[in-house]
Hints:
With 587 residues, the chain is of the alpha/beta class. Helices cover 57% and strands 8% of the residues. It catalyses: DNA(n) + a 2'-deoxyribonucleoside 5'-triphosphate = DNA(n+1) + diphosphate.
Amino acid sequence: MVYQAFYRVYRPQSFVEMSGQQHVKQTLQNALLHNKTTHAYLFSGPRGTGKTSAAKIFAKALNCENGPAKEPCNDCSTCLSITDGSNTDVIEFDAASNSRVEEMREIIEKVRFAPSSSRFKIYIIDEVHMLSNSAFNALLKTLEEPPSHVVFILATTEPHKLPLTIISRCQRFDFKPLSPFDITERMKVILADASIQSDEGTLKVIAQAASGGMRDALSMLDQVVSFSGNELTVEDALLVTGSIGEDIFYQMAKALQVKDAGAILSLLNQLIIEGKDVSRLAEDLITFFRDLLLLRTAPELDNLLEIISGEERFKLLAQEFNPDTLYSFIDVLAKTQQEMRFSNHARVYIESALLKMVNFSSSPVQQGNKQAVDSELYEKVMGLEKTIEELRKLIAAGVNTGQPVVGAQQPKKNVSKSPQSFRIPTGKINEVLKAATKTDIQTIREEWAGMMQTMQKSHSALLEETEPVAASDNAFVLKFKYEIHCVMASANTSLRSDLSEALSSRTGKGYEVIYVPEEGWLKVREDFIRNNKLSPKKSEQSDISIEEAAAEEMHSFVQEAEQENMDPLVTEAEKRFGKDFIKVFND
């Protein structure tokens, strides 16, 4: 007879043989006992956790000649035919290789035919998430209201890829990864039936490497049996699975404890030479330090250990590490594991992580020094608090301490209500106003909208609430509605250069930009107008001086600029009805 793998020979044939998944088994068995089975089920979960096996067992329990029953008898012709795959009323459909809508329509056409020899016609669709959208749409209506003799069982490892309309029409069962204990117990049964000798340590290594999947565990067990023969050893299991023995972990932990970087890097190099996977090493190290932390904080729960055994040397080793140090080790390794996924230099990352852990580790002597430092710091803090309390009593009693109390005579300033947190360049603004021309400000305003579209989005967003208010031949004043935006813009050197380049490319002139918040602009403008409207001393001929004429011209320019800044609708309304009858509200 052709040899068959363990996971095929020892596939569970009843609910009692299934490992774990107690919540699934109990719900399905109660539905069978009380005749409350439904028309569609969805089994989801990681690979090798029993989804297809549970579907076949449920199909046998539904169609068993002695059922529907809590457990299939596995003796009647229906159960035997379902087990060997010859029953025409239990159809297994692999959606991974039959994902097109044509295959799904063929199934739907045959759904209406009654079962030939069984109580129900059962469709088991494996890897259902591989179906195309058209196939899902074709299945949708039939899945919602199938004939009374049809039951659909959908199995998938990626339920998030299924349309919600499909999921909502099924009873969903989430299969969980199997625990190392469940996997180990199942392997013991299989090895006992196959008359193969093994110990607990060997099975624990295989169960840890399986990561919660029974099929993976049985495949590795099959491989170890082929390598070792009729007696399995821990060394053979470590070699076949690529895992690391607890002795190596013990040596690495001791090297970390004494801060021997050379020893730990040598051990790492030895493991890499032996062909150990670096990513797997990081994962195993996380589990190892988790086991040490468990022994350190809850030694009575040694049955939860995954990599190391409950030997006395590991219990002593766990006591030599501070829990905070173990937390730091796990944190460093977890971050390193994430970074290794996106790099081709995984060895560099694991070496760096181990060196960080060497620096994190601390001996009992260092812990004593740390406690001494903490104690000294505590005494200093207590002394300062005592001094502060004495000063408070003196101040309350009205005694002059001879030194001013910092901040006592100055009330807290409300930052949001401070007159100006931005230093306004009044001198530069006045220079622009003195040399301001109508042509320059009109040119800049005409090109402003188009220029904003050519700038970076982050820069244009910062200049959203701004407006050019005055311009000379070589500079212009940019008013900000909010002071915080003005402060941010003044600190952004790339914005200033980007703005000058964009404006120069559109106007042909290199303007220097001067930032000012709206409140500051109003004050500077008012001061400028007031200073230039002072009554000048007239000469004997009552001639107007050149400075006065320039001031008058500048005043008219500012007033004209104000008119241009106003909304044209408001201006027109004021012309028609007068300013006294107009009120403007800004949304």
